[in-house]
Specification:
Elements lengths: L1 H17 L5 H15 L3 H23 L2 H17 L6 H7 L2 H28 L2 H25 L7 H14 L3 H16 L20 H16 L9 H34 L3
Helix pairs in contact: 1-11, 3-7, 4-7, 6-7, 6-11, 7-8, 7-11, 8-9, 8-11, 10-11
């Protein structure tokens, strides 16, 4: 059966994180980052991460209010009605469609998100300081939106406080280094497993931490490489910088959307089984 195949694929996918062994450099980096943040004043440290979390919350809320999001929502419902005429609301997607059908529709959203990231990364590599300056906020915005669309496809209303928090936790887990993903996955599964209220998250409501900062650090290195190769022109265009920007952004969105897809697949399967 299709659901059994998806379960097996999920298990194989999870094994790459559960069996991952960090190398010496990664262990040294973790210790260095932890020690540096421990040396900071606790009030300053907490304020820094709370401001970062607040930015993600506001970004999520902003996306929910855009006409572009409404159009995407209608596009998802239209795709769902191809398989079932009983779909009238987002919640009907989960009830009326199989995991395979939902996966097919979600893959369309994933492909579109990766294309946008690829194009945006290419513009960053080709453009000036303005494009480079807005690159990281734009990438975070596009990846949060991609997760929202995958969640909508699987029948979860993203404007509910509980679903908003879950989708942001998925974003956080998806952007963590590989060595930290297994633990983040287990935290997510426990969170949805002990759901007690549609508007309240039972676990920790914090998003960012020291481990998550590796992703912004990688972005800084990417920006540095783009600047290094910007003057190496081929027929008047900085093709190396364009390739660095496009590939880096595409690869990040690929990782994020794949993680989100696996999570919502798992959630759908467990929901069908009665939790």
């Amino acid at each position: 059966m299709a659901d059994d195949r998806i379960r097996r694929e999920l298990e194989v996918w999870l094994q790459q994180f559960r069996q991952y062994q960090p190398n010496d450099f990664e262990n040294m980096y973790d210790q260095w980052m932890y020690q540096n943040f421990q040396n900071l004043d606790p009030g300053v440290r907490d304020k820094f991460f709370s401001k970062l979390d607040a930015w993600f919350f506001h970004t999520h809320a902003f996306l929910q209010g855009t006409s572009y999001q409404y159009e995407a929502r209608e596009r998802i419902l239209t795709a769902g009605r191809i398989f079932s005429s009983n779909i009238h609301h987002i919640q009907d997607m989960e009830k009326e469609l199989t995991t395979d059908q939902l996966t097919y529709i979600a893959e369309q959203q994933m492909a579109r998100g990766r294309l946008y990231s690829f194009a945006q990364g290419g513009l960053t590599g080709a453009g000036g300081w303005l494009f480079l300056g807005v690159d990281y906020p734009m990438m975070m915005l596009m990846n949060i939106r991609a997760i929202q669309l995958i969640g909508l496809t699987f029948g979860h209303e993203m404007n509910h406080p509980y679903e908003m928090m879950i989708s942001l936790k998925v974003f956080h887990a998806a952007t963590l280094p590989k060595r930290l993903k297994a633990e983040a996955w287990e935290d997510l599964i426990q969170e949805v497993g002990k759901k007690e209220h549609n508007y309240i998250v039972a676990g920790d409501d914090r998003l960012t931490d020291e481990g998550w900062l590796e992703q912004p650090l990688k972005h800084c290195f990417k920006s540095l490489f783009i600047l290094m190769f910007r003057k190496k022109l081929v027929q008047g265009l900085p093709f190396i910088s364009i390739a660095i920007g496009a590939y880096s952004n595409y690869h990040l969105t690929k990782r994020v959307t794949e993680f989100a897809m696996k999570f919502y697949q798992y959630r759908h399967l467990t929901s069908k089984e009665g939790g």
